[in-house]
Design a protein that fits this description.
Number of domains: 1
Number of strands: 7
Mean pLDDT: 79
Strand content: 15-25%
Structural class: alpha/beta
Radius of gyration: 22 Å
Helix content: 40-55%
Length: 233
């Protein structure tokens, strides 16, 4: 009983900490601000390289010697495919500058929703997006499990004339990589596995990564638009 109570206390504390950090990260001081006909630029902070988040895809259970022997043989063949696929993913991620795509798309998509004029001059723009990409890449827990795109980024909107932060959003998300992102028509909701990914070309994987980055940018701008509407209705 005591252990159960302690466990629930720890869970509650953990949830409280997560909730508090979320509140600290988010900020909305957009009341009274207008963007129409104003200029906005976007600055990308130094970004880490993309990552491939994986568990061990070739675990062997030695409690059953016969099955272990089979698994070892299967595992060796699988590891060959895994190595090829990882190399292909590395090449694809080298072809696609995900942080830069997010920067460009946030700037361009925001101009359509908030009607500002996007410019590249970060010194003279009225507002400035400060984009910090903390982690991003591909998450594949096993050879047959679905592949996910992970991204952890923080976006701050600054009144550039006053040097004042007026909006902030944090996005630590994990998206299933469905077939539509990789150019498969009618494949919406059809989750790509590592097996499926191994059969794609490097160019197809790069296209999927690009589309996933665009999808992330769209979600960020929609949140900004909703927050702007809340403060200026």
């Amino acid at each position: 009983m005591k252990n159960t109570v302690m466990r629930w206390i720890l869970i509650f504390i953990g949830l409280f900490i997560i909730f508090t950090l979320t509140l600290c990260c988010s900020m909305n001081r957009l009341q009274g601000y207008q963007f129409r006909e104003h200029t906005v630029s976007a600055l990308l902070a130094y970004s880490p390289p993309p990552e491939i988040f994986t568990d061990n895809w070739a675990d062997v259970d030695f409690s059953n010697p016969v099955q272990a022997f089979i698994d070892i043989g299967t595992g060796i063949a699988k590891e060959v495919e895994v190595a090829k696929t990882r190399a292909k993913m590395d090449s694809a991620m080298g072809m696609v500058d995900i942080p830069e795509i997010v920067r460009i798309e946030i700037l361009e998509r925001g101009s359509k929703y908030l009607h500002y004029r996007a410019i590249e001059d970060t010194d003279d723009s009225d507002y400035l997006f400060d984009i910090e990409m903390r982690h991003y890449g591909i998450d594949a827990e096993s050879w047959t499990a679905g592949v996910y795109f992970k991204i952890d980024t923080r976006i701050t909107l600054i009144d550039n004339m006053k040097g004042k932060e007026i909006w902030r959003g944090c996005f630590d998300e994990k998206y299933p990589a469905s077939g539509e992102f990789f150019g498969f028509s009618g494949a919406a909701g059809n989750i790509i596995t590592m097996v499926s990914l191994s059969r794609l070309t490097t160019e197809q994987i790069a296209l999927g990564l690009k589309n996933l980055a665009i999808h992330t940018s769209d979600r960020i701008i929609h949140k900004l638009q909703r927050d702007f509407s809340k403060k200026n209705q």
